Amino acid sequence: YFEDDGSICKTWGYRTWHWLSDPYPASDRQMTGFGLSCMRTAGANKVLVGSPGWINTANVSTGKVDLLTYSGGTVTADASPLVGAAAGEQFGQAVVYLTKFKVNSMNGPGIAVGAPGYAANSGVTQHGKVYIYDAAKTAQASIVESSPANYNNYGERLFNLGNLDSHTDSTGFEELAIEGSGAVRIYDGENAGAAVSVLKAIK
User: Fold this and answer.
1) Spatial CA neighbour of 35 closest among 71, 4, 77
2) Rounded CA gap, 111 and 103, in Å?
3) Which residues of the chain have pLDDT under 50?
4) Whole-number pLDDT of residue 130
5) 98 alpha-carbon distance from chain centroid
6) SS3 28
7) 73: Cα separation from own chain's centroid
8) Are 38 and 22 in contact (CB under 8 A)?
9) 181, 179, 120: which is closest to 151 by C-alpha?
10) What's the pLDDT tens digit per position in 162-185?
11) Are 143 and 187 in contact (CB under 8 A)?
């Protein structure tokens, strides 16, 4: 739920699902994982909420991320949620708001979404992936490990580290940390190219 002043986000399984349009019976709602990830954005009384087990109308579990807005005691969901692309991706397992990040044509605020269940067509199982969207929710980049392995679950957790490399970057671009299977990689938030570069790998 949201506190009366809209400043704090708290979610508790399916008990908050009535905020959304849910085509499935109440007995199935816990399976969506609604609220497993939750983070405020820069907008007043707005919050990103992940549902990594969400099932679409074709009965495929891809996961999704909703942008919820609190106003006048009512919570409404944005009409265009971010939705996972493939079955079992667990899209929305982690979500983080980026205040200032540069990649591709994005130069400003955006959203990073973890999909630790993502598997490429190469036969590697659940190596994971992270998607980056701009403020308009347009996909700008995706990140996978250079040598993906089975069950790495990359994107299981995401962290906005702020302007970590302030000694070389005085303009406030933030760094993104991605965790999976005990390894963490920190990505540079100031990159004019189409890909995000690794600033530091920790394992």
Assistant:
1) 77
2) 12
3) 1-25, 27-29, 167
4) 92
5) 10
6) helix
7) 26
8) no
9) 181
10) 887 664 555 778 888 888 877 788
11) yes
In single-letter form, the type of residue at position 125 comes to T
Q: What is the DSSP string of 158-169?
A: EEEEESTTTTT-
**Helix segments in 41-181, DSSP class H:** none
The one-letter amino acid at 68 = L
Residue 82's nearest CA partner among 144, 13, 131, 129 is 131
Amino acid identity, position 149 = A
Dihedral sign, Cα of residue 63, residue 135, residue 139, residue 156: negative
What is Dmax (Cα atoms) for the chain? 53
- pLDDT per residue over 151-168, tens digit each? 788 889 998 888 876 645
Write the single-letter amino acid at 160: N
Q: What is the pTM of this model?
A: 0.80
Predicted confidence at residue 114, as pLDDT, reads 93
